[in-house]
Amino acid sequence: MITDFVFNLYCIPIRSDLTLDTQQAPNPQQHAPVQYAPAPYPQYIQDDEIDLFELVGKLWARKLTIATITAVISVGAAAVALLLPPTWQTETRAYVTSPANLAHLNDLQQQIGIGATSANGAFTLYSRYLNSQATSRSVFQESGLAAQALEKAGKGDNDRVLADGFEAFNKNLAINHSNPKKNIGQFITIGFDAQSQPFSAQLINDYLLPSARAKTIAVLTTELSTALTQGKAKLLRQITQIEQQFIESASFKTLELTDALDIARAGGLNSFISDRFTTINAPTLFMLGTDILTKQLEQQKDEMDKYRLISVQGKNDTGKPMLANVIPLYLKLQRLENLEIDLSQLQPVTIDEPAQVPATPIKPKKSLIVALGVILGGMLGVFIALIQIAVANRKEKMTVASDN
Questions:
Q1: What gap in Å lies between CA 84 and CA 298, rounded to an integer?
Q2: What residues contact residue 198 under an 8 Å CB cut-off, 6+ apart?
Q3: Distance between CA atoms of 257 and 273, rounded to whole angstroms?
Q4: For residues 201, 206, 209 and 214, what is the CA-based torsion angle, rounded to 10 degrees?
Q5: For 103, left (φ over 0), alpha (ψ -120 to 50), or beta?
Q6: Which of 79, 114, 235, 346 makes the best surface tag, with the fewest CB within 10 Å?
């Protein structure tokens, strides 16, 4: 019927006696032969429309297939969700410490004579060692993760196993610094993912944070010890210089008195000769006479033996006084000698709170996996049902064609 309608539509009769002049009436008795305008090519309309109701009915007829495939995939997804090992995540934060926590460190630095470490400086130093690969590698070894990796791998290339294990450890460890544009104050967020619930917090609290703190304290202790050694050496050099100047001056004075005494004895001058025109100095020192020169020489020798010289340790000189210029330097040296460098209680950063044992794992998300399994299973079931419907329709058409 559709084909006939189309054919009639395209094959409209055309009369040759029709004209556009409406004033001349056509002669009804004269008829021109009817001419038909043939279609340029045969028109065929193929019915390719999809009947959705029919398709839904066919899918409903295969509901058991769809439901079975959906159920199988869903059960598989649930099994995967149950069999996947859980991943536990915990984290903590490290903030810039307060100046009060650095009071002991700053006091030691002041006594030694070096610049004080600020709270931001301690935070930067701690951050450097927290992000250090050396720290991560020591934690990887000390926490037992390296031994676990070797144990799981069994026999093989140990270096390769350790390298892969350390790479996986670094992926599970997250150390993020705060953004000054988005956050108020400086802080570091430390997180770790582990397949053991308590170990995720244990690695941060017992290994990572103590290791970074120990390395920070070790560096500060080394700086203090080096500065202390240099400070003591400098004081000793200054004391030695002052005492050597004293020894040289006293020796030169003794030599002058000895020469003058020899001249006075040779000239027979026993007492001082008063002469207002003569000035007593080194060349005329002999004019004091042997009596005065002898006493001055004895006093000079007593002066040399009177003081305790730090640079020249002698016997039974602990009770002797020190040179006036040496006393303040010696006291400072004694303070440095008795200075004990102990930074075991130092807190270079402030930990918000210890990492807590997580209550729930972050992976796998079982509900999401099951939901995806149901969705994918349903989609796969419908797809297989559609293939079955297409195959059945093709067989039906081939049967009809063979019957005709």
A1: 98
A2: 357
A3: 17
A4: 180
A5: alpha
A6: 79
Q: How many CA atoms lie within 13 A of 8 on its CB side?
A: 5
C-alpha radius of gyration, the chain, whole number? 53
Beta bridge partners of 319: none
Residues 6 or more apart whose Cβ sits within 8 Å of residue 177: 127, 186, 187, 188, 189
Q: Which tokens is 367 given? A: 């509900």
Sequence-distant (≥ 6) Cβ neighbours of residue 277 within 8 angstroms:
none
CB count within 10 Å of CB 204 equals 24
Half-sphere exposure of 302 (CA within 13 A, CB side): 6
Backbone angles phi, psi at 373, to 5 degrees: -65, -45
Please give the Cα distance from 309 to 247 (Å, whole number): 9
Contact 362, 193 (CB under 8 A): yes
pLDDT tens digit at each of 404 positions of the chain? 434 443 444 444 444 444 444 444 444 444 445 554 454 544 444 455 667 888 888 888 888 988 999 999 999 988 888 888 889 999 999 999 999 999 999 999 999 999 999 999 999 999 999 999 999 999 999 999 999 988 887 777 888 999 999 999 999 999 999 887 777 788 999 999 998 889 999 999 999 999 999 999 999 999 999 999 999 999 999 999 999 998 888 888 888 888 888 888 888 888 876 665 567 777 777 778 788 888 888 888 887 788 888 887 665 667 788 889 999 999 999 999 999 999 999 999 999 899 999 999 888 888 898 999 999 999 998 999 899 888 888 888 888 888 76
Can you list the domains of the chain with their CATH numbers? 2-77+366-403 (no CATH), 84-229+343-351 (3.30.1890.10), 232-337 (1.10.287)
Collapse the DSSP code of 400 into the 3-class scheme (helix H, G, I; strand E, B; otherwise coil) and give the result. Answer: helix
Looking at this protein, which amino acid is placed at residue 137? R
* Residues 97 and 123 sit within 8 Å (Cβ to Cβ): yes
The residue count of the chain comes to 404
What is the reported pTM? 0.69
Q: Report whether 191 contacts 109 (CB < 8 A).
A: no
Token pair, residue 403, equals 């019957």
Q: How far apart are CA 132 and CA 215, in angstroms?
A: 10
